[in-house]
Amino acid sequence: MEDRQLQIAAGHPDGWDAMQHRILDAAERLIAQRGVRGLAIAELARTAGISRPTVYRSWASADEVVRSTLLRRMLHLLDGIPVAADRPSLVTAVHEFTRAFQSDALYAALLEREPEIFTRYTLHRFGASQRAILGWLSASVSAAQTAGSVRHGDPAHIAVMLLVMTQSAILSHGTVADLISDDAWDDQLRAAVDGMLRP
Description:
With 199 residues, the protein is mostly helical. Helices cover 72% and strands 0% of the residues. Helix 2 packs parallel to helix 7 (105-113), helix 6 (87-103) packs across helix 11 and helix 7 (105-113) crosses helix 8 (115-122). The longest helix has 19 residues, at 128-146.
C-alpha cells in the first residue's frame, strides 16, 4: 500500500477509483468527527454504504485507510499552490501552505483533538504525504535557484529543511499562541523561510 501511495504522490492523483474516493470521503467524515481512534473498518463500510470486503480490497487495515485519507487531503492542499518561480513567491507559498493546512477541517480536527496521533502519522514515519510536500518544495527551490534568488545547494536537501521548519511551525503554533500574535507569527515565519533560502 505504501508503494501505491508513493506512486500517487509522485504525480498520479487519479490512482484512486470512484469507489475508493467514496470510501475516503467517508473516512474523512469519521476522522473529523471522532478522530483516528474512532475509525473502524465496520463503521467505515456502513458510512460509505458498502460491504467490509469492498474496503479490504483496497486497504488491509484502518491504519492504511487513515494514511490514504491524509495523503489525499495533502494532495488537495498542494493542488491549490503552484510551484514557485523565485524566493519571494516561495516564501509566500510556504506561508499559504501552512495557513491552508491549519484551516483545513480534517487536519485542524486532528491537531486539536489528537495531537499525539497527528504527530505519529506526520512525523514518526516518513510517508507519502511528506514525499508529496517535498516534491513540491524541491521543484520550487530548483526553479528559484534557476532564477538566481535562492542559494546554491541540493534542492532536495533544502526542501527537507523547509519541511522540518514548516512542520515545526504548524505543531508549535498553538503552544506559543499566548506569546505571539498571529500577525507576528506570520511575519516571523516568512523571515525564517526567507533567511534560510537567501543567497
